[in-house]
Write a structure and sequence with these properties.
Elements lengths: L4 E9 L4 H14 L3 E7 L8 E9 L10 E5 L3 H7 L3 E9 L16 H13 L6 H10 L3 E4 L2 H12 L4 H5 L2 H12 L4 H11 L4 H21 L18 E4 H12 L1 E6 L6 H8 L3 E3 L13 H4 L3 E3 L1 E4 L3 H13 L3 E7 H17 L3 E7 L16 H6 L8 E4 L3 H18 L2 E7 H4 L1 E5 L67 H21 L6 E4 L6 E5 L3 H14 L4 E6 L1 E3 L3 H8 L4 E6 L5 H10 L5 E5 L7 H12 L6 E4 L4
Parallel strand pairs: 1-4, 4-5, 5-6, 8-11, 8-12, 12-13, 13-15, 14-15, 18-19, 18-21, 21-22, 22-23
Antiparallel strand pairs: 1-3, 2-3, 2-16, 7-16, 9-10, 14-20, 17-19
Length: 659
């Protein structure tokens, strides 16, 4: 593999500051002009189990993670045991020498397969099962070992700041691991201290103590290890403005910009982070810009350029979807965020919105299933579910984002789709995107356009009796929509089939008219939504191999394509974004000319591949799939596609990497 980047990993028990340390590392690197891609992995319990964070750095744009670890920073025995053998030859491990006599079999939270694999490797090399043996095995594999006595160094920091409590000092061990990493890489000390101060800016004393710990770590490394090892990490001078953003936050920011003013949710991983992000930012600055055309009439003027979003934690997911639907009926742009098990409970509410033609957005963060499945792990297993959730037939649009730039702009689009076509819209994201931290160019708000569709304003002129023909058939299937409370806009909502006024009826002629009215909106969307919002195509048209995929595999595929090109293997890539209505004509046009089609997905059955065959009659002859709960790396995709190009791959290549 030819790589011009650096991969750093830190791990520890959940609740021990792993996320904090990774954020400091990533922010310090980003502040130095480097591109960053971070991947977070964690268990479904609150505290105690192992979590880890991998951060990849480069001078060039990064779109995915890699399996190779160049430097592993540890401050507990489980991180050392789980990840030591992932470190490449000539890489580095930072560890606490006080852990030396702990034994692998005494780590209570490590699973049997991982424990047995490691003890087997140790035994086959004539070693015991203590941490010092794990270190020795890594050393024999060509890994550089750096022992950092964290507490010994921190005691000196404590003396400097008048802190003698070991428990208080121990909280800075994770920062010491970060600082030691940067010191060994020869990175600018002040940049790291600045990142620490930003991380703890609400606690000035804590910030300065941690900055002191950074300085002490640098001093120790300079004295003990003469400045580090062979790999050096240098800042890059750039005038570019960049964002450093996490997936959940990108979607949350976009919702506020899109004019979402009601977000409902019931806590569920990994969706909850988005709602919690919005809860912390419920008051919104509005500039009254005509370019944004804020969805709430006169909001900027009425509230003196301050707006707000109501974020409500409901008693369950049934309440979450129905409350969001209620918001849609009042004219408020409304959404709910959930994951697979929660979406299961929303199916009936989704149907109610469908039959009543209510605009509502569901942000569906996919994770491993079925049932509770893998609560904090990754999968793309809900494509078919999103397509068919709910009994009977009703229109819904489904848009799948492939990276955090798409996720931002797609969030605005799904609200526009919901109101233009007066129907539920499902925005498919997944755990890999939700928990990625990436540096990006700033989002361009001038690209954001609000489209409210056939929304009526002001007093309506209605016949005597005051009832409004809300569901009157139109050539497009979209009827004018008054919000609840509009004078002259009285109509009925019911879960039953209904006539133009909303009154319940089982008349067969009316049923035909209403079904045709509702379902014709999919044909309208199919005609109106531009191709650039539905698909992406990368690479030369005449490549001998065509990759097809959707969602968060995009970054790994694009990175792998560059490495494949260096090996003389030319491929192109069709990314399908609008799942429903499916871009049948374009997909058929591309794939009917393809020499060899390879479907790449994060699920067992290749759900998109099946959908392609259903809609185009084109069979998929080669699958690359992964379903162990860990996202695809660019290295895995590279190796699998290379195997396919050599003619040595089985029909279904199953990827298995990830701790």
């Amino acid at each position: 593999m030819k790589r011009n980047d650096f991969s750093w990993m830190i791990g520890g028990a959940q609740g021990s500051g792993v996320d904090t340390s990774a954020n400091i590392f990533a922010r310090a690197a980003a502040s130095g002009g480097l591109y960053v891609f971070g991947k977070r992995e964690y268990y479904s319990n609150i505290k105690g189990e192992h979590s880890y964070f991998q951060v990849r750095l480069s001078k060039n744009v990064l779109r995915s993670h890699v399996d190779t670890v160049d430097m592993l920073a540890t401050f507990d025995d489980e991180t050392l045991a789980r990840h030591a053998l992932e470190v490449r030859e000539d890489g580095a491990i930072i560890y606490d020498p006080d852990l030396g006599h702990n034994k692998v079999e005494n780590i209570p939270t490590i699973e049997a397969p991982a424990r047995d694999f490691l003890t087997g490797e140790l035994s086959s090399n004539g070693l015991g099962t203590e941490m010092k043996d794990v270190i020795e095995l890594a050393r024999r594999r060509g890994v550089h070992i750096f022992a950092i006595p964290y507490l010994e160094i921190l005691k000196k920091v404590g003396e400097q700041f008048g802190e003698s409590s070991l428990s208080s000092l121990a909280r800075m061990v994770n920062v010491m691991a970060v600082a030691s990493s940067f010191a060994l890489l020869g990175y600018e000390e002040e940049t790291v201290k600045d990142a620490v101060r930003r991380q703890f800016k609400s606690k000035p004393k804590v910030a300065e103590m941690n900055a002191g710990a950074v300085g002490a770590a640098y001093d120790y490394v300079r004295t003990k290890y003469n400045g580090g090892f062979g790999y050096k990490l240098q800042p890059v001078k750039t005038d570019e403005k960049r964002l450093f953003v996490r997936g959940n936050s990108a979607v949350g920011i976009a919702k506020e910009l899109a004019g979402c003013r009601l977000q409902t949710y019931y806590p569920i991983t990994p969706a909850s982070d988005e709602s919690e992000f919005l809860e912390a930012r419920e008051v919104i600055d509005l500039d009254g810009s005509a370019a944004l055309e804020n969805p709430q009439v006169g909001e900027a003027q009425l509230l003196q350029n301050k707006g707000s979003i109501a974020v409500i934690q409901t008693e369950d997911e049934i309440a979450a979807i129905t409350m969001a639907i209620g918001g849609g009926l009042t004219g408020v742009r409304s959404a709910t965020s959930t994951s697979g098990p929660g979406f299961s409970l929303m199916a009936e509410g989704l149907g109610w919105a469908g039959i009543n033609e209510v605009p509502v957005v569901v942000t569906l963060y996919q994770r491993g299933g079925p049932s509770t499945g893998l609560p904090t792990r990754h999968e793309q297993g809900d494509l078919r579910f999103a397509l068919h959730a709910g009994h009977g037939e009703f229109p819904r649009l489904i848009l799948a984002s492939g990276d955090l730039e798409e996720a931002f702009y797609d969030t605005v689009r799904v609200f526009n789709y919901a109101e233009r076509y007066q129907t539920p819209v499902i925005h498919l994201i997944d755990k890999a995107l939700a928990n990625s931290d990436v540096t990006l160019p700033p989002y361009d708000v001038n690209k954001v356009k609000i489209e409210r569709g056939a929304l009526l304003k002001g007093t309506l002129q209605t016949p005597e009796g005051g009832e409004f023909h809300r569901f009157k058939p139109t050539p497009t299937g979209v009827s004018p929509r008054p919000v609840l409370g509009t004078k002259g806009g009285v109509y009925w909502n019911t879960g039953d089939e209904h006539d133009e006024l909303g009154h319940i009826t089982e008349d067969p002629t009316n049923r035909n008219a209403m079904m045709q009215k509702r379902m014709s909106k999919l044909e309208l969307a199919d005609r109106e939504i531009p191709l650039k919002e539905r698909v992406n195509f990368f690479g030369p048209n005449d490549a001998p191999i065509t990759l097809v995929s959707w969602g968060s595999t995009k970054g790994a595929i694009l990175d792998a394509m560059e490495w494949l090109k260096e090996d003389g293997i030319i491929v192109n890539f069709l990314q399908i974004r609008l799942i429903h209505p499916f871009p049948t004509e374009y997909v058929n046009q591309v794939l009917s000319k393809a020499t060899k089609i390879v479907d790449i997905e994060m699920n067992y059955s290749g759900q998109l591949g099946g959908l392609i065959r259903e809609r185009t009659c084109i069979p998929i002859e080669q699958y690359i799939v992964k379903y162990n709960g860990r996202p695809m790396s660019s290295e895995e995709v590279y190796e699998a596609v290379k195997l396919v190009s050599e003619g040595n791959a089985p029909k279904k290549v199953v990827l298995t990497r990830g701790a």
